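Need residues for this backbone.
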């Protein structure tokens, strides 16, 4: 590697050595390091080559990373050993240089560290570079925790790949609701306008909180005159808020289901609103995410005929040991993963019979058969290239999706389709995904404030006192 640039740039910028899993996690990570330089060891290229075969997401990303690297290398006319400027290939997103390993590096590792292992060979390259470029920081970037621990044990700098993290702290994640202060009407009601339209009350308020509010954020105020409302419009200092339908009352039941708490009422208002095309529901086990969504879906498919059918999909990540290949059609293979669907349909069938007056066993059986014809269970593996028109699409266990997979799924939506993402970011089963980098966290953060999107974090468990206590103490 030549060092022809000015000493100022060399001392101010870092040299990041990329582990293979970073490129397989984010194929365009080469463009994410801004003014800093990147070094790709030959072993990283070997591991990319070993993982490129197959139709898995990892194999696709490995091929994409190789193509990205090929575009960068072919755009360079000079000597690769001098480094390749990333300014043009990245469309000025990155101004650093890409260095590929162009010389043999003898692994000089402590005795007892096997040199044949790919990870250790990459560590040997980091050690070599940190000695050669003692005047600048040389940092290993890896998604592998053990690799980072080994690097630090050898006295080398190592970091996780942070660029895919939407938030450093998930406590900062948008909750979708806001409690109005006790003096809200005194500070915001000076030039207030109020009117009624289609049975709803609207308030046009102006004040300091308006700048912080998002469109479709749910606002509430407890007290003698409780208020549950949604931010309908925001125009500079002016905000229009609209009162909500009370789905906690039996007369407004949704397929026999009524909201048991404030957050469930907010969720049903988002799920039943035809103007909202995308809804994300976060919450611990037992908060009612799937039940509320299915109740809203069945009502809008079978009663109001707003959508033609419900499509449900989820990531098939096993909790324990995998039981191997499953027999049958796509729907039959997905059936073991859809226990949550079956459990909730049993509840909804009972609710439909009580609330809707469908008679006896015959009525229940007929309802169950009708419901079955309108709910399709699909595998994520066959979603590419599809377009769903006028469908109620439910993505369950969405916390196990990467941002790229989430983008692929949501862009399947055609005209008249509503997409609902359900998940619990504290229950991530996919390797290399964290609460901060999950696709669910990504969409919640990116969709906030969009006029046709809504989000709510459900907080209170309504499953049973046993489940609530277990979630709290275990």
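Answer:
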């Amino acid at each position: 590697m030549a060092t022809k640039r000015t000493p100022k740039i060399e001392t101010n910028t870092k040299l990041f050595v990329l582990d293979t899993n970073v490129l397989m996690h984010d194929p365009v990570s080469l463009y994410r390091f801004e003014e800093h330089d990147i070094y790709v060891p030959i072993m990283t290229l070997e591991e990319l080559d070993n993982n490129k075969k197959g139709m898995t997401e990892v194999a696709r990303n490995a091929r994409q990373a190789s193509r990205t690297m090929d575009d960068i290398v072919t755009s360079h006319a000079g000597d690769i050993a001098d480094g390749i400027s990333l300014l043009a290939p990245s469309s000025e997103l990155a101004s650093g240089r890409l260095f590929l390993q162009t010389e043999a590096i003898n692994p000089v590792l402590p005795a007892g560290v096997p040199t044949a292992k790919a990870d250790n060979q990459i560590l040997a390259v980091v050690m070599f570079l940190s000695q050669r470029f003692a005047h600048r920081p040389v940092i290993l970037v890896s998604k592998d925790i053990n690799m980072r621990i080994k690097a630090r044990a050898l006295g080398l700098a190592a970091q996780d790949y942070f660029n895919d993290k939407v938030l450093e702290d998930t406590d900062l994640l948008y909750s979708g609701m806001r409690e109005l202060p006790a003096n809200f009407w005194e500070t915001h009601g000076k030039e207030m306008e109020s009117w009624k339209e289609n049975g709803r009350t609207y308030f046009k308020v102006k004040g300091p909180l308006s700048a912080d509010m998002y469109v479709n954020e749910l606002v509430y105020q407890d007290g003698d005159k409780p208020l549950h409302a949604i931010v309908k419009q925001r125009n500079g200092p002016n905000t229009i808020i609209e009162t909500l339908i009370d789905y906690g009352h039996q007369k407004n039941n949704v397929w026999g289901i009524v909201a048991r708490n404030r957050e469930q009422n907010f969720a049903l208002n988002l799920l039943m609103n035809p103007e909202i095309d995308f809804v994300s529901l976060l919450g611990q086990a037992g908060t009612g995410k799937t039940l509320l969504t299915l109740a809203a879906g069945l009502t809008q498919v079978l009663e109001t005929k707003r959508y033609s059918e419900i499509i449900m999909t989820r990531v098939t990540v096993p909790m324990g040991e995998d039981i191997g290949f499953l027999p049958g059609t796509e729907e039959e293979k997905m059936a073991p993963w859809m226990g949550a669907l079956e459990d909730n349909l049993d509840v909804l069938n009972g609710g439909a019979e009580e609330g809707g007056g469908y008679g006896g066993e015959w009525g229940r059986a007929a309802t169950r058969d009708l419901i079955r014809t309108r709910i399709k269970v699909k595998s994520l593996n066959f979603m590419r290239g599809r377009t769903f028109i006028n469908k109620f699409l439910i993505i369950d266990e969405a916390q196990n999706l990467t941002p790229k997979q989430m983008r692929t799924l949501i862009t399947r939506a055609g005209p008249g389709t509503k997409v609902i993402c359900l998940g619990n970011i504290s229950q991530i089963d996919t390797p290399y995904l964290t609460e901060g980098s999950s696709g669910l966290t990504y969409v919640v953060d990116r969709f906030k404030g969009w006029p046709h999107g809504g989000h709510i974090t459900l907080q209170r468990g309504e499953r049973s006192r046993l489940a609530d206590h277990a979630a709290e103490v275990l």
